[in-house]
Structures are given as structure tokens and as C-alpha cells.
Design goal:
The protein is mainly α. It has 16 helices and 4 strands. The strands form 2 sheets. It has a two-stranded antiparallel ribbon with strand order 1-2. Strands 3-4 form a two-stranded antiparallel ribbon.
Length: 428
């Protein structure tokens, strides 16, 4: 992956791909960010900027070719003008822009299979690190190398998604399929250690949908449409059910599994969030301008929920939480980016259910199932936000290529028809 061996008369020559090395370093730094701190963020930026700087002309072309992510970044930067904390908003929105640019470059300069291999290695290292040098909270719940048990659980879900993608593709080598089996085992074990009912339920739902996509390759187009409609309806129903009865369902699940967990009062948080949205409905209060030390609302909620670190807290719903910061206008941009990426990746997986494509579709489905109870996008220097933009770009590129191929097939068919129409005339 990072290096390829080529046999010659004088022996083996090892060729190293700089882009793969840079992206691997960047991904590991993001996953170990809590441990590495400013050094990890700096190394991620350094790796990303070197990746961008290797082909500056191409970087500019990529920014123009994928407008929606850059438009969202522009809106976040513009929110500095009405932000409660302009300096905070400007700093984090610039970091978000750099994160997005690096993500777009990754999806244009690496193949999907290379991304899957990098993600597999990076998340395995994060999973092993969480076991070896990780930590537990005061109540015994495992945090691993992450800031919270929710972040630890979300990383574990990616391990399972990557593992299932490898296992389901028989065209892959035995080595990578065994690595996939290890990913599933490690990810499930760490999900249990994190004691996150929401993440475990979302993981099971994601795997079920991935397997559904894999089984649809032998179906007709009409059968695929029917099964896909049923699967989407079931998924929407699951999301709505969990949104309305999340705490009750979590309590029941935790009692069945013998766990004792203090839930985060999502219903109360959502009520407070809706009150904040009503005050600034269109534009919000500024990107990352809510959970700031000194903000009366943040200080009151940290005190009420006994968050001693005064960080790592949110409204436990992606769209609700983001609407407080960037308003309905910003959330519509985010929803457009994510939902279009979801459709692109799932449609691509239905056409070509290879490991790397199934992985991208699984990531987006995982985001959809978790977004009702967690904030899964878009945050600066965040591995899942980076992968979400990468999946969007890969999916959009695949959709554009399929559109081009369809046009070529149509032109070829029209050309054959013209030839058939001319033949009788030529015969005369």
C-alpha cells in the first residue's frame, strides 16, 4: 500500500507512494489527537499541506470542481461577521476549510481501495492503542485514547464497517479478509467496552444495510429498487423510533445487558437547543461559537450536567446542534452535502459492490443512523468529518463517470441506429 516491490535483475526495488504516506500520517494524527494535542494537529496540518502543495494547480482545480463543500466552508467563515465570539469562529472555520481541502485532495489523489487500506490500518492502530494506553472514566466506562466514550464508540463502529467490507468481497486477498475479521472482532469488543447502546444499535443497522446491498447485485433493476425502498423505509423508521424513544430504549437495552449508564438528558438538551434556534433561526450564533468557555449557556449546561472538563459536550443531534451554530441556512448546506453523498455512494455500491465502495456506503449509512443521537459532522480536525467529505467526493466522481459512460452508450446506440437506417439506402 505505502510501498510496492518491483523485481529487477539486481534485486527488489521498493517504491514508496508519498501521497499514501502523507494521508496515513494525517489519519493517525487525527485519531490520536486527544493524546498528541497541538503536536497532533500540527502534524496533521503539515501532512495535509504537503499533500496540497505537491500539486498546487490541481488543488485549485479541485476547489473549483467540488463547490458544495467549499460553499459550506465559506458560509462558516462568513458567520464570523455575526458570531458571538468572532475570533473563535474565524479560527475554527479556517481549520474546517483546511480539513475540507485536504479531504477533497485525498479523494482525488488516492484510489478508493487505497483509502480503505489506510483507514483499516489507522483505525486498527487506534483500536490497539485504546487497549494498550487507553483509560476508563470514573464509572468504569472505557474511553480508550479518545476524549469520551462516545468518540471511542464511534471509532469502533468504523472498525466494524471496514471489517465487514473486507470480508464480504471475495475478490480481495486472504490477508485483507483476515484483517477484516480482526477489525470486526476488535470493533465489537470495544463497542461493548464503551457501553454505548446507540453506537451498537447503529452499527448493527449499518452492517445489515451493507449486507443488503451486497445481496442485491444479482437482482434485476426493478427488484433492486423495491428492496432499496424497503430498506430505506425501514432505516427511516428506525431513526424516527430511536429519536422519539431513545432514552427509554437505551434504558431497556442497558438493563438487558446488565450495564448501568447515566444518559445525557437528550430531551432536555433538545428543548434548550430549539429555544436557541428560535432566537437566531436563519444564520445561527456563529460556527463553534456556542460551546465556548465564558458563554453563559455553555457554562450553565456544563454545570448542570457536571461536565468538569468544560469541553466535549453538545446537543446530541447533528442537525439540531449545528442549527444552533450556523442556523437553518447552514444546516441546509450540510444536509445537501451529506444526503447527496449518501445517495451517490449507495447507488455506486449497488452498481459495483466492491470492498472499497461498500466501505464508503457503509460510512455514510453509519453517519445517517448515528446523527440523531450524536454530532457526526462537520468539525475541524475530525476523522469522521474528513471521511464524510472524502466519501462525498468519491461518490460524486463515480456519479459523474457513470453519467459520462451512459452518454457514450447512448451516442453509440444512436450511431448504430443511424447505420441501420442508412443500409437500405446504400443497398439501392
Amino acid at each position: 500500500m505505502m510501498a510496492a516491490g518491483v523485481a529487477t535483475e539486481r534485486g527488489w526495488i521498493v517504491r514508496i507512494c508519498p501521497n499514501v504516506v502523507l494521508v496515513t500520517v494525517a489519519m493517525i494524527c487525527l485519531l490520536y489527537l486527544t493524546r498528541l494535542g497541538a503536536a497532533g494537529a500540527g502534524l496533521f496540518l503539515l501532512s495535509g499541506l504537503v499533500l496540497l502543495g505537491r500539486e498546487p494547480t490541481r488543488t485549485l482545480w479541485e476547489a473549483r470542481s467540488f463547490v458544495l463543500p467549499m460553499l459550506l466552508c465559506g458560509f462558516c467563515v462568513a458567520s464570523t461577521l455575526w458570531s458571538n465570539y468572532p475570533a473563535v469562529t474565524l479560527r475554527y472555520s479556517v481549520q474546517l476549510t483546511l480539513t475540507f481541502m485536504i479531504a477533497i485532495a485525498i479523494a482525488n489523489r488516492l484510489s478508493p481501495i487505497a483509502l480503505l487500506k489506510i483507514a483499516t490500518v489507522a483505525y486498527i492502530l487506534a483500536g490497539i492503542g485504546s487497549l494498550v494506553i487507553g483509560r476508563a472514566g470514573e464509572n468504569g466506562i472505557w474511553f480508550g485514547i479518545f476524549e469520551s466514550k462516545n468518540a471511542f464508540a464511534q471509532a469502533s463502529t468504523v472498525l466494524v464497517v471496514a471489517g465487514v467490507a473486507w470480508i464480504c468481497d471475495r475478490a480481495q486477498s486472504v490477508t485483507w479478509r483476515l484483517a477484516g475479521l480482526f477489525c470486526v472482532a476488535l470493533g465489537l469488543a470495544e463497542l461493548v467496552m464503551a457501553q454505548s447502546a446507540g453506537a451498537l444499535i447503529a452499527t448493527m443497522g449499518t452492517v445489515l444495510l451493507m449486507l443488503t446491498i451486497m445481496t442485491m447485485r444479482r437482482m434485476t433493476r426493478l427488484q433492486r429498487a423495491f428492496v432499496a425502498t424497503l430498506a430505506m423505509a425501514g432505516m427511516v423508521g428506525m431513526v424516527l423510533f430511536l429519536t422519539g424513544y431513545f432514552e427509554e430504549f437505551s434504558h431497556a437495552f442497558l438493563q438487558l445487558t446488565g450495564k448501568d449508564v447515566t444518559l445525557t438528558g437528550r430531551t432536555e438538551l433538545w428543548e434548550i437547543a430549539f429555544g436557541q434556534i428560535q432566537q437566531h433561526p436563519l444564520l445561527g450564533q456563529g460556527y463553534k461559537a456556542v460551546w465556548v468557555r465564558g458563554n453563559p449557556l455553555a457554562e450553565a449546561l456544563w454545570s448542570y450536567f457536571d461536565i468538569k472538563s468544560r469541553s466535549g459536550f453538545h446537543f446530541h443531534n447533528t442537525m439540531i446542534s449545528n442549527a444552533v451554530e450556523i442556523g437553518v441556512a447552514g444546516v441546509l448546506l450540510q444536509a445537501g452535502l451529506f444526503l447527496s453523498g449518501l445517495v451517490f455512494c449507495v447507488a455506486w455500491a449497488l452498481r459495483s459492490p466492491r470492498a472499497e465502495v461498500i466501505f464508503l456506503a457503509g460510512l455514510m449509512l453509519r453517519q445517517l443512523l448515528l446523527m440523531h443521537s450524536e454530532v457526526v459532522f462537520f468539525t475541524q480536525f475530525d476523522a469522521m468529518s474528513l471521511l464524510t467529505v472524502v466519501a462525498f467526493v468519491f461518490g460524486l466522481r463515480a456519479a459523474r463517470q457513470e453519467k459520462t459512460r451512459a452518454a457514450l452508450r447512448r451516442h453509440a446506440a444512436e450511431g448504430r441506429l443511424r447505420v441501420l437506417h442508412r443500409r437500405p439506402v446504400a443497398a439501392q
